[in-house]
Design a protein that fits this description.
about 90 residues; mainly beta; four-stranded antiparallel β-sheet; 4 strands; about 0% helix
Length: about 90
């Protein structure tokens, strides 16, 4: 996440945050394949998502994008099929 977060920085995250994560920096844990850039089970990225109506007054995610601020890394794009692995 450089230039925002530097190597050896300590990060503190809140758990069970209520409300939108849109545009926020998040700590994501993979339950499936590792981060393709680092091979780690955890990654810190900026969150954005696309949603659609579920037809019952609620909504569901179509796509979640976890974007790095460091241009040397690629965003991680998750579809509804990948929801169980993150």
């Amino acid at each position: 996440m450089e230039p925002t977060i530097h190597d050896s920085d300590f990060l503190v995250f809140r758990t069970n945050v209520v409300g939108t994560r849109e545009g926020k920096t998040v700590l994501a844990q993979y339950r499936g394949p590792a981060d393709p850039d680092t091979g780690s089970a955890f990654t810190v990225k900026r969150y954005s998502s696309e949603k659609e109506s579920d037809g019952e007054g609620g909504w569901r995610h179509i796509r979640v994008v976890l974007s790095p601020t460091n241009r040397e890394y690629q965003p991680i794009v998750l579809t509804a099929k990948a929801a169980e692995s993150v």
